[in-house]
C-alpha cells in the first residue's frame, strides 16, 4: 500500500508531491464517506488521539475532532487552560504523560514556531501540527489546495494570490509551500508592512495593487484582518485597509472573468471581504470547511497506517 | 408515522396540542429506555448534533448531551468561550461553518431573544432552542408539563401557579404557553415589579398574595430567585422576598390539601423554598430532571425523523 | 466472585489488604488489555459515570476519562467553571441533579476535606474520591503501590521515603495508609515546617536529612514543590529547598545502591528532582502514569460489579 514519506505532519515543507497526491486520493474516499447517511468508518478503532490545543481555536479543533470521531478513533481533548502547564511543567513532560496513557497520535496547536518539530524529536507518537505560531498550518494548506483542485480540476499551472497579512500568517506560508509543490504560481498582495522581506526568496512575487493582483489570478485566497494588528506599526486603521485591500462585488464584476474566492475564516464581513462576495457562487469558503474534515481524516488515517499493530 | 407540525423547536408558541401529545408519547417510550440496564438505543447513529451554548448552563447542557448520547448520535460541543465569536464572526457564519462539517441538528442557547428563529431562517439544519434570552425555553416547559401529567394523570383542567420573577423568566413564558395549550389554568404570583404588564393579555391572572395563590392551585412551579436582580429596581432584598414569597412547610401544611411543588433548579434553599419542602414527597423536582432527558430524547428523535436519509 | 469490602472509594483508610490485592489483580488484567491493539473492553456499556472536578486537574482527569472509555462506560464531564455552583446551589443538589439523569458512579475532586464522604452519605451513587483537599487521593496511592509491586515484586517489607511537602499533600497521606497496609516501612523527609506533627502518631518516622533518608530506603517518592507555598511561612525559597531536598544524579550515584525514584507529577525539573534523575532507568515516573489507567479501570470495574442490574 502507498504510504507517506514522512512520519509526522509537521509542515508542508517536509512533504513531496506524491504525499499530497496520496492525501488527496485518500480524502476523496473520505469525502464520499462523510456524505453517506452513516458518516463513519471503523478504521481507527484501535487508535487513541489526543488533541492538545495550547491556543484557542474553533473550527480547526472541531474539524479535527469530527475527523477523528468519523474514523472511530478514541479522542482525548486537552486544552491549556485546564492544564499543568500553569504549574510549570515542560511541554515534553506534559506530552509524555499523556503518551504514557497509550496515546498514538498527538494533534497540537502551539504558539511557538517549531513546537511540533521539537516535540517529534522527543516523544514516541505521531505528531500533527495544527498550527505553530506564525510558522505553518499544514492541514489548512492541504484543504485549501484540495478545494482548488475540486473547483478547477487541478492546482498545476493555476495562478493564486494570497491577500492580506502575510507577515503573521501561518496559513500563507503553508499555502505557498503547498501550491508551489503542485506547480501553481503564487503571488501575495497586501500592505508592505505586512509582507515579510524574505517572501521573494521563496519565488513569490509581491503585488501591492489589489486590482492588478485580481486581474492576474485564477484564485484569491483572502486572509482575515487581525484587528489587534491594525495599529500604527502595521496599518493605520481597518477602514483604510478595506479601501485598499477589501474585496467587494463591484471589483469582482469589473474583472471580466470569474475568479475563485477563498477564505480560511473566521470572516470579518465588510472588512477584508463584503457579504455579497463571501456568499456569491464564486466563493468556495464553506467547501473549504467541508473538505477540511475529509482532508484531516486522510492525514490521520495515513499516519495511523504506519503504526505497528 | 406521526410527525411534528414544525421543522424546528423554537418555542412552545409554534406547537399545537398534537405536537405535545406526540412528544409525550415518544418520551414515555424513552423514559422506559433510560430505566433499562442498557440505557441506549441505536436510533440516531447517522445523526450529528452540535450543542452551541453561548451562555453557561449546567443541567440543560448535560441533559441534552445525555439525551443525544442515549440516542447514539454523534455529539459536538461548542461553547462561546473557546470560540471565534470573540474574533468578530457573525452568528450565522459560526453556525454555517459548523454545518459545513455535516451537522444535522443544532441545540442552541443564546442570550438574545429570537436567536433561534433568526438562525432557522438562515441555515440548513434543525434548530432546537435551549433558551433564548428572556423569551422561551421550550424543552423546560415540555418536561414540566410531562412531569405534571405523570404525577396527576393529565394537565387538562389543572390549576398551576408560577411563582417568582416572571419578568425575566423564559421558563415562565414557555410554561404558560404549554399549559394553556393543554387546557390548564395558569396564574402567576410574585412582586409586582417582577410581573410584566402584558401577562394578563395572555389570559393569565396575577395573584400577589402567596397564600391565596397556593390555596387556589394544584401545582406550584417555583422559580429561582436571581440574586443579581434583587436590588432597589426590582426588590429590596432576598430576605424580604423570602418573607413574602418563600414557601415553607408550615405554609404548605396549613393549606388543607397536598399541592405539587416544582422548581426548574438550581434551588436557592431557604430563599424561594425551604429544604423540607424541596425534599418532601410533594416535591417532584428531581422527577423533572429525570424526565428532562426523556423529553429531550423525544424532541430530538422526532425532529431527526424529518431529515432525509 | 470477589468483591470489595467498601461501597465507595473514599480513602485508603477505609480499605483492607484484601481490597488492595483484589484491585491489583484486576488491574493486572486491565494492564494487559490496554497494551492490546484494541484497548477496550465492553464491560461497562450499561454504566454512566460523571466526572465532577471542582478543582483543576490534567493527568488525574485524563486518566479517569481514559479508564472509563476503555471500559466502554458512558462518560459525562462536569467542571465547576461551567456550573451552577456559582449560582449558589449546594453540592448535594448539584450531584442529585446529575444523578436524576441516571448516573451510576461519580468521580469527584473537591477542595474540601471529606467532600466525598459527605456526599456518599447523601446521594445514591458510587463515589470515587479523586482528591479531597489535603486529605486523601486514594487512586494515586494505589497506582503508586502497584508500580512498586511491579518494579520490586512486592510492597511488603520495602522501605519507602516520601520526600517534600507532607503537610499539604493528599498523595503523602494516602500513600502512608496504603504502604503500611501492605507491610511496608514508611519515612517522610522534608523541611520541618512542611511535616505535620501528627505524622509520628501514624507510625511514620521523620528524617530531615535527605542523604540519610535515601541511604535507608528502597524507594523515594518525591513530591512536587508547590511554588505557591514557598514563602517565609513554610520555606524561604525554592533555591534553598533544592539545595537541601533536591535529588540529583550525584546524590543517587553516591548511595552505593540503586533506589527507585517515583513522582506523582507534574515535575518541576531542577527543583525537587533533576532531569537526569527523572529520565534515568531508576525512575518509574511514566510507569506510574501508565499504571494509573489500569488501576482506575480496576477500581471502577469492581465498584460497578456491586451495582444491581
Automatic annotation (TrEMBL), chains A, B, C:
Record keywords: Pyrimidine biosynthesis, Transferase
InterPro entries the record matches: Asp/Orn_carbamoyltranf_P-bd (IPR006132), Asp/Orn_carbamoylTrfase (IPR006130), Asp/Orn_carbamoylTrfase_sf (IPR036901), Asp_carbamoyltransf (IPR002082), Asp_carbamoyltransf_Asp/Orn-bd (IPR006131)
Pathway in which the depicted protein is active: Pyrimidine metabolism; UMP biosynthesis via de novo pathway; (S)-dihydroorotate from bicarbonate: step 2/3
Cross-referenced PROSITE patterns: CARBAMOYLTRANSFERASE
Annotated residues for binding of L-aspartate: 87, 170, 224
Coiled-coil residue windows: none
Family according to the record: Belongs to the aspartate/ornithine carbamoyltransferase superfamily. ATCase family.
UniProt protein name: Aspartate carbamoyltransferase
Organism: Polaribacter vadi
Gene for this chain: pyrB
